[in-house]
Amino acid sequence: MPNSFGLFFLGFDQFNLHRVLESIGPKTYVRAAIPTVAILALMSTAYMQTKYWRDSEALYVRTLNVTRDNFLISHNLCYAYVFSDRYDEAQPLCERSVAINPNFSDAWNTLGILQLKQNRLSESEQTFRKILDRWPRYLPAYANLATVLVIEQQPEEAEKFLERATILAEGSIDRSRWIEPVKNLAQLYALQNKKEKAAENYRRAVFLDPNRLDLRVALAAAMYDTHNYDDALKNIQAAISLDPNSADAFYIGGNIYAAKGLRQDATKMYERAIELRPGYAEAESGLARLKGATKND
Description:
The protein is mainly alpha-helical. The protein has helices at 17-22, 50-66, 71-83, 87-100, 105-117, 121-134, 139-151, 155-169, 179-191, 195-208, 213-225, 229-242, 247-259, 263-276, 281-296; strands at 5-12, 37-44. It contains 15 helices and two strands. Helix 7 (139-151) packs parallel to helix 9, helix 8 (155-169) packs antiparallel against helix 9 and helix 11 (213-225) packs antiparallel against helix 12 (229-242). The radius of gyration is 23 Å and the shape is elongated. It starts with a strand and ends with a helix.
């Protein structure tokens, strides 16, 4: 097993936050930004290559036929199956690995990921908490536990573990690896109508990657929701600079200008959003409201 380790994310779409957001009120959020919950795994960077997994599977199986008590090979094959969504095959291998060597933290982490992907949330949470009890500096478990807690709709608890991981990393954290957990935390706060906390965590996400369009637009929308229109406008302008063809950015920009009472600017934003996405219902509604307000003046 290589000695160089890296962090990587597996996608896990446990629930559609966008669909729920649409049901709770004003549609100030980005239609296209349907989130996936990220799962963080600590493994060799070589394991990220699908071809490597396929080529290695036969070798792992042959090795286990000879040495069934090999905790490392059991774990590697378990991880390969988890990576390939072959959960029933993965489970006995992960369980065997931790039984043979209970001190192998990576195997516990992979077992927790498997339980999460099987929707065994309570067991997954217990596994990640067990990891942190035994290895309090094992950073991937903090993000993975936060992922479980977000799915269980416990954002305050999730935020606590993400903040703890940041402190433990002592400034050496790879920003790109933590964006998705922070973004999903922000989205859950928005779902729960905790607007200030949503804006705070979107701000953190933008700090991690200031050049990511969806984060800029989401932060602008969250600031719009908290009536922080000046900062919302700065972020939507930054978003439009990143992508002048983002219909969502122009739609949110229209909302912001309308809230500031700048109708001409709002009209231009809505019209541009509709031009970029014909039939954009929210932008059309915003434009109709502006025209109605103008007639009543």
